[in-house]
């Protein structure tokens, strides 16, 4: 199932090129959710509501997806986790830039996971406002897992049970000396979307071809089978420090090919099993 948020905080199911309104389910779920819950009530309720949402979508008239405004798929993530240096070829390209050996760079096991500010999240219909156009701003193509339920110290073999679905993501980055969490948390620097594909539709998250283009020119092309920490290991590792909550986003790392993004550029991140996230960078007003 492809679940989207759209227009004025509506919930939709995407079937083909149509979005079917299931906002009534969202209203009911939110009404009975505790205010002090951690994470997103709708994502948490999906297992229980899945069949009803399916039925509602089939009964609801469709509206062309191109005619709606797509919002980030999760309304209330409790956090945005991200994996640094999780593809060998990306570590090698960053090492080459600095004239150092790839082995001199800290791998993910030493660097750990970092957090991006929730306020940096933006959906398909937003823009990436480049706040420091005089500095090097780059795209990082990433598969993003959406956590489905609360868990901590999750075992490797159970890890996929904690994923509600997947979307495409851009870990936009200002290069420089500040802490990662600062440089990668500029407003609009975490585009996610275009919707969330539920985990049951992804046969193997560690075998997903991914591709990024800037203005139609391919810059990054890889497969999640190149991940150093695969999807299960990422969940196990992150949850050895954090408690994960439903709706948490998990950026899984970027392959090689990162390159500059300038005002006016259209950036597209795509995976056949998920869809295409396409968003424009603009100069911050
Ligand atoms: Mn990244």
Please give a structural write-up.
This protein is α+β, with helices and mostly antiparallel strands. The chain has 2 domains: 2-71, no CATH class; 80-283, Fumarylacetoacetate hydrolase, domain 2 (Alpha-Beta Complex). Helix content is 19%, strand content 32%. The chain contains 6 helices and 19 strands. The protein has helices spanning 23-31, 41-59, 88-98, 108-111, 180-183, 231-238, and strands at 2-6, 10-15, 18-21, 62-64, 70-71, 80-82, 114-116, 121-122, 127-130, 137-138, 141-147, 163-170, 173-174, 190-198, 209-214, 217-223, 249-251, 266-271, 275-283. The strands form 3 sheets. Strands 1, 2, 3, 4, 5, 6, 7, 8, 11, 12, 14 and 17 form a 12-stranded mixed β-sheet that branches. A 5-stranded mixed β-sheet has the order 9-19-18-15-16, with no helix packed on it. The mean pLDDT is 96. Bound molecules: manganese (II) ion (MN).
List keywords for this structure.
285 residues, alpha+beta, Fumarylacetoacetate hydrolase, domain 2, 2 domains, five-stranded mixed sheet, 6 helices, binds manganese (II) ion
């Amino acid at each position: 199932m492809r679940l989207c948020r759209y227009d004025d905080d509506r919930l939709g199911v995407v079937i083909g090129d149509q979005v079917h309104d299931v906002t009534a389910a969202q209203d009911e779920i939110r009404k009975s959710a505790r205010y002090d819950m951690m994470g997103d009530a709708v994502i948490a309720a999906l297992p229980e509501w899945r069949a009803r949402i399916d039925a509602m979508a089939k009964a609801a008239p469709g509206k062309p997806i191109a005619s709606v405004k797509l919002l980030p798929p999760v309304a209330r993530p409790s956090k945005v986790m991200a994996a640094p240096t999780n593809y060998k070829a990306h570590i090698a390209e960053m090492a080459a830039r600095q004239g150092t050996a790839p082995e001199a760079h800290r791998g993910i096991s030493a660097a750990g996971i970092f957090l991006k500010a929730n306020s940096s999240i933006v959906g398909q219909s937003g823009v990436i406002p480049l706040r420091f156009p005089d500095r090097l701003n780059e795209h990082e193509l990433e598969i993003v897992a959406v956590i489905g339920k609360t868990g901590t110290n999750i075992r490797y073999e159970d890890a996929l049970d904690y994923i509600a679905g997947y979307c495409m993501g851009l870990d936009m980055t200002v290069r420089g000396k500040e802490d990662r969490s600062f440089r990668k948390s500029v407003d609009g620097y975490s585009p996610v979307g275009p919707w969330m594909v539920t985990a049951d539709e992804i046969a193997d998250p560690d075998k997903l071809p991914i591709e990024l283009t800037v203005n139609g020119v391919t810059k990054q092309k890889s497969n999640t089978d190149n991940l150093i920490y695969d999807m299960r290991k990422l969940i196990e590792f992150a949850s050895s420090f954090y408690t994960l909550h439903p709706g948490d986003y998990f950026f899984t790392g970027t392959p090689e090919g990162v390159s500059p993004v300038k005002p006016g550029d259209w950036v597209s991140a795509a995976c056949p099993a998920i869809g295409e996230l396409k968003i424009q960078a603009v100069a911050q007003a």
